[in-house]
Fold:
Amino acid sequence: MDCSSLEAVLERIERACERSRRDISEVKLLGASKTVPAERLRDFYECGLRVFGENRVQEFLSKYESLKSLDIEWHFIGRLQSNKVKYIIDKVVLIHSLDRESLAQEIQKRAQRLGKVQEVLIEVNVGEEESKGGVKPDGAAPFLERVLEMENLKVVGLMCIPPYKENPQDVRPYFAKLREIKEEFERKVGIPLKELSMGMSHDFEVAIEEGATIVRVGSLLFGERG
Structure:
């Protein structure tokens, strides 16, 4: 197995941490593995990658079965329909895309039945784009407060998918906005939100400079795919 793409991404993460005077241990690399076959994920696991994120429930379930002998930390990073929660609730460490009350209630119900506290990120639509999920920035704090009342959900941070810009530097204000929302809420409620899931193949270095703790990298690791 050629591990060079993983090594190259890890090197770029390290350099971004150095520039922003952060410890590399603060940043988790997630392999955004939508459409990547299970056997390729096995190869990357052998290269040392342990965290993978899936967007589609059916595809995730298939890979989960194929790779369940491996100690993979699975995240769900795509838009999640409430009626699909029951299929993943016992399999994922973190759900990145909580963005509405009905989904929060369903996760709470399913987690309660399992006696589990499900860790979640609240997705914020920092660009206020109609085509994307996520709560609007001014609705993030009220929504977060309601979710905090649910005993079987634990909000550990925020996630965003900013508008695409040709120049990654042009995305910086959106990452900064997510960090500011997080910091403002921490001051208001006194509860630490440890995670900021932001940055993908095109712009993850800028995201790290703005405080990302999870970067979701797909094409740079696995190559372009359909």
